[in-house]
Design a protein that fits this description.
The chain is α+β, with helices and mostly antiparallel strands and about 625 residues long. It has helices at about 25, 35-50, 55-70, 80-95, 100-115, 120-135, 145-165, 185-190, 195-200, 205-215, 235, 250-260, 280-295, 325-330, 355-365, 370-375, 385-390, 400-405, 405-410, 420-435, 485-495, 575-585; strands at about 10, 20, 175, 180, 220-225, 265-270, 300-305, 335, 500, 505-525, 530-535, 540-545, 555-560, 590-595, 605, 610-615, 625-630. A hairpin with a 7-residue loop joins strand 1 and strand 2.
Length: about 625
């Protein structure tokens, strides 16, 4: 049997550190030590090249890299190809050979193509491509080694800032000059091949680089009502939309991109084709990021396909759709376009949110204040008002009514396709309560949700704003009240936790009024309705209408006043104004919840057909108020 060729490192004289690549190493493809020896030799050659900058060493590195690529299986070639491309780039910088940067770039692109976006070697290949392109674009520098070091540093700064900026923009954008859909890699490629990149390489200020990069990646967003035959991602991927022919959906996309281009924007986004609707992860990211994207955009173009004339803005279906609410509130700069793609208002205003006439129309159409339209800040504060804005709107998929509000309330919740609309809304309301303790979302009349008895089945009950007639209080009412008892009551209220919701159960801080008597005053057969007179501790008698037949055992029911601890003024112990303020609050009429006691000390809300407005019977008995934290299912 023939002997195997030996793997040999041919060394120079002692201490010289000279190493050359033996042909026997490169030929011995079956030697089991090959895979270990090649990387070790690569490290050795690179160390010597960094020290001596010898072209001979560099050529041996290239030979070694080529051999490594050949003996590596295709799925694992990304890293070896990147190393070879880097070696060719360095030889170009040393010798200024024009052919090699092109070959280097081609190899880097090959390396990128070998791995999916999530593969760990993909980032290495992409960074390598950036360095190769930077070398290609570098012109007019006399000292090659200085150029290499300078560009390596410059490109790293630029790439770091690039990563920061694109983190807040959509992962797919339409390139308006070409009409092609570009993912992150294509966006980077367009940038690296642009004159702007060449200019950035000459800048030393990170703030200037950030400013110019942000300007380069300015993008527009389309806000519109979906029509028929809208182009999806699979319909346009790998194509130029300007070269396609199709129905009105494609024509709308083409007009949008062309309009964006004429207004000076190279990038545009549309929810029709820039989201992979077959990917759950893509949908989750898009829904969770939509508010941010519209807020970050330089312009939102609102296309009203059903509006032809000025003055008919409020008649558009755009104002009845759920997703358009967050698009309107999130966008800083908005322009409305009519059916023929002409500006809805013929004015010089660069932002229709600042046009007085149009702003008035917007306020009337949305029932949203001018301040909120221009300065909206997402969050769970004032949640009842935000729910009212959305209560008149609809979505194609019922659960999207809740999903379209995630950005407005600044919550991140999983998208669970297949869940009911009640569950989707229930999860949103549960998050609102848990974040802020706001019990105003429990003040409604209508159909109950299966998620929790204290939640409505839909947003319609929020169309009306709760109202109670306030009573006038004066200092005279303080006479005769036990101040020590009042202070103790304040302390009891101060210990109450904020309301929260977990596992479909609401932990509800409340003022308790046990029901002492329930009397049926009348009933209707169709629809089935009962009218009751209810007596409860410390409250005036009141009437309640419900489709639920109440039990004769009044002891199983309570009327409660949900308590919002943030309404309690701070008290330092020396000034009793906070104590008196609490008593004045408790004297006011309030909207009560009727709860039924279940097993295991749980409660369930009884659905009523009217608001239960309760009034205290005797202000003096307020000091006897009982506060508890209940668990409601």
């Amino acid at each position: 049997m023939a002997s195997q060729p030996a793997i040999v490192l041919i060394m120079g004289s002692a201490g010289s550190g000279r190493t050359s690549v033996s042909p026997r190493i490169l030929a011995s493809q079956s030697d089991p030590r090959r895979q270990e020896t090649l990387p070790a030799l690569d490290i050795c050659l690179h160390k010597r090249f960094r020290r001596e900058r010898s072209v001979t060493d560099l050529q041996e590195i290239i030979t070694l890299c080529q051999t490594t690529v050949e003996c590596t299986s295709p799925p694992d070639r990304c890293k070896p190809l990147s190393h070879l491309a880097n070696a060719l780039r360095e030889r170009f910088q040393v010798l200024r050979l024009k052919s090699h940067p092109e070959e280097s770039i081609e190899l880097a692109n090959d390396a990128m193509a070998l791995n999916l976006p999530q593969h760990p070697d993909r980032a290495l290949a992409r960074e390598g491509l950036a360095h190769r392109l930077a070398t290609k674009l570098a012109k007019g520098v006399t000292r090659a080694t200085d150029t290499s070091n300078r560009h390596s540093s410059d490109v790293q700064v630029i790439m770091d800032i690039f990563s920061e900026i694109v983190a807040d923009i959509p992962p797919r954008l339409l390139h308006t000059p070409t009409g092609t859909l570009c993912g992150r890699d294509a966006q980077l490629s367009h940038f690296l091949n642009s004159p702007e990149f060449t200019e950035l390489c000459s800048l030393n200020s990170p703030s200037e680089i950030r400013e110019k990069l942000s300007f380069f990646f300015r993008f527009t967003m389309l806000s519109h009502r979906w029509g028929i035959s809208e182009p999806l991602l699979r319909d346009i991927e790998g194509k130029g939309i300007y070269d396609l022919e199709g129905a009105e959906g494609l024509a709308k996309l083409q007009q949008f991109c062309h309009l964006s281009l004429t207004r000076g924007f190279s990038w545009a986004w549309s929810d029709t084709c820039c989201i992979d609707k077959d990917s759950g992860a893509d949908l989750q990211e898009a829904i969770g990021s939509m508010f941010l994207w519209y807020h970050r955009s330089s312009l939102t173009i609102v296309y009203l396909a059903d509006v032809a004339d000025t003055g008919s803005l409020a008649d558009s279906v755009w104002f009845k759709r759920g997703w358009m609410l967050q698009e309107l509130l999130a966008s800083k700069i908005v322009l409305f376009y009519a059916r023929d793609w002409s500006l809805y208002v013929k004015s010089d205003a660069a932002n229709h949110k600042t046009d007085p006439c149009l702003l008035e129309e917007l306020c009337d159409a949305t029932q949203i204040s001018e301040w909120h339209l221009r300065n909206f800040d997402p969050g769970v504060e004032d949640s009842r008002t935000r729910l009212r804005w959305a209560s008149h709107r609809r979505t194609t998929r019922p659960e999207h009514v809740a999903y379209s509000l995630f950005g407005i309330f600044k919550v991140q919740l999983p998208i669970l396709y297949g869940e009911t609309a009640e569950d989707a809304l229930g999860r949103l309301l549960a998050e609102i309560i848990s974040r802020w303790g706001d019990v105003s979302v429990l003040d409604w009349v209508g159909k109950q949700s299966s998620f929790n008895s204290c939640f409505p089945a839909n947003l319609e009950p929020y169309q009306t704003t709760p109202y109670t007639q306030l009573v006038s209080n004066g200092p005279a009412k303080r006479e005769g009240l036990n101040l020590e008892k009042a202070r103790k009551l304040y302390s009891d209220f101060a210990r109450l936790p904020l309301a929260r919701c977990a596992h479909r159960r609401i932990v509800l801080p409340s003022i308790i009024h046990p029901v002492t008597a329930v009397t049926v005053k009348g009933s209707l057969a169709s629809p089935l309705r009962y009218t009751y007179q209810i007596h409860a501790s410390r409250l005036n008698p009141l009437e309640v209408t419900s489709s639920v037949k109440l039990d004769e055992d009044a002891g199983k029911y309570i009327l409660v006043r949900p308590w919002y601890p943030r309404s309690l003024r701070p008290w330092n112990g020396s000034d009793d104004d906070a104590v008196w303020n609490l008593l004045e609050q408790l004297e006011q009429p309030f909207n009560a919840l009727l709860l039924e006691r279940l097993l295991h000390n749980e409660y369930k809300r009884v659905a009523c057909d009217c608001t239960i407005t309760a009034c205290v019977q005797d202000p003096a008995r307020i000091l006897d108020s009982e506060v508890l934290t209940l668990e409601v299912v």
